[in-house]
């Protein structure tokens, strides 16, 4: 049986938590970017007088 020191396990869990938080932040930023792209496209339609194709 492999035995781990509690410090190394704690460090591993901390790194996993940091990676999960980073992934969550990236996903949130991707959602925000997509929302902003949509807003820009809608504004472009208004500015250039094109009809919405929704």
Give the low-pLDDT segments.
none
Global Rg? 22 Å
Mean pLDDT: 86
Strand content: under 5%
Shape: rod-shaped
How many alpha or pi helices? 1
Q: Work out the number of β strands.
A: 0
Helix amount, in percent? over 70%
Helix/strand structural class: mainly alpha
* Major sheet attributes: none
Taken in chain order, the helices and strands follow as H
Span between termini: 61 Å
Describe this structure in words.
The chain has 54 residues and is mainly α. The chain has one helix and no strands. The longest helix is centred in the middle third of the chain and has 43 residues, at 6-48. The radius of gyration is 22 Å and the shape is rod-shaped. The mean pLDDT is 86.
List the helices and strands and how they pair.
Elements: H1 6-48
Supply database-style keywords:
mainly alpha; 1 helix; 0% strand
